[in-house]
Request: fold
Amino acid sequence: MKQYAIIGLGRFGTSVAKTLYGMEYEVLGMDTDEDKVQDAVDYVTHAVTADSTDENALKALGIRNFDVVVVAIGADIQASILTALILKEQGVKHIVAKAQNELHGKVLSKIGVDKVVYPERDMGVRVAHNLISPNILDYIELSPDYSMAEIVAGEKMLGKTLAEVDFRRKYRCNVMAIKTDDKINISPLANDKIHKGDVLVVIGKNEDLQDLEEEA
Ligand code: ATP
Reply:
């Protein structure tokens, strides 16, 4: 069973910790704020009050034995960077850190953080795509050029098979899955039909997805 440590129990850290704990993983939650640590006892395996910029405190907790450590400190950029550096020096196998802005993210990457996440920026992108078309339920950037989108099937597609819509040629996008109510078809075939209310999980180049969004 993988063990996770979450440093910083703000909104982001709490959400990560709750989700992992809900999936029955072992989760250590750490914060300097005693009240936050008290609140966390219901959704983490162990909750500790400690300062992650204190090397000895991290060593005493055996932080290097955790499979993944998430640095969920945002506002205090200095504390976030120092924490990441100490974790790296102590040989933590996999570090994920939240960045406040691009420069913060760059520094974290240079230190050797394995995955830098930008929750506010990414959520902004998702909301903006949903504003362009209310049929876009979700939007995830896979790389600067490619993304994945969840799109409610448009009128023009209803009653047609994937082959008839001619997705690949018409929109240059691939349909990875079709969601119908609470069922999901994860390997749709060319002759699978699209019904009213279906949600298509589509992958493609950003500009091609945008054409599809505008038509959907
Ligand atoms: P969010 O948006 O996730 O609510 P945020 O980006 O505003 O959070 P902060 O509130 O600055 O980030 O930090 C998140 C949590 O990290 C806070 O609860 C704070 O007490 C905790 N924290 C900050 N510095 C440290 C530290 N050195 N060690 C442990 N916890 C820390």
Notes: The longest strand covers residues 173-180.
